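Exercise 7.
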Amino acid sequence: MSEFALRFTEVAKAYAGLAALSGFSLEVRRGEFFALVGVNGAGKTTLIKCLLDFCDIDGGTIDIFSVPHRATAARSRLAFLPERFTPPYYLTGRDFLQYLLGLHRTPYDEARARRMFEALDLEPSALNRPARTYSKGMTQKLGLAACLLSGKDLYVLDEPTGGLDPKARALVKNELKALRAAGHTVFFTSHALPDVAEMCDRMAVLHDGRLRFAGTPQEFTGQYRTPGLEDAFLSCIAS
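Solution. The predicted structure, written as tokens, is:
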């Protein structure tokens, strides 16, 4: 059994002749908490779309738990939260969870759903409300709840704390840390470098479609001889 949850090998992707990803190679170990960071337009969301087979790659390979990413079975062990998550407006919170968990072949449990809502600072009564009445932060928490309740081995999260207030960010980070403690793999994008420093085993910097760095946050600051990730990041993308 491979030790890697994800393996990208020389992945290339272009749009209208412009390279979005060029020779991208990276390995994410099982049970690892891994962050992908970069400026807007660096290629992070494109990489996730390629991983999930939402778009074709122009070259290279992607493996999920040693299964080629084009195989439907490869994605059976992961849950995904997009950056701009929008549930069907007419579904209640409960309806949405039941629908998503049904797709994941995970039984819906009302008590677990209520506990997850409470853990994310959502009133359990929101399970009865249609999604159109949710605020942006509540909508993000609903998507996170659906992911976390799925019980998958791998979680792919695109800016999971975007749009959340400080209390909600702290609570979400607690839930993500619990996933890591239970041996799950978390691969996420983030603009919040302090969160990366606090939570991640390793990180990668993607800039102009190319991998600029991969290693621990400590190795990152050490390589660029800076006291924090933000200064190291600026040095990395300028080099």
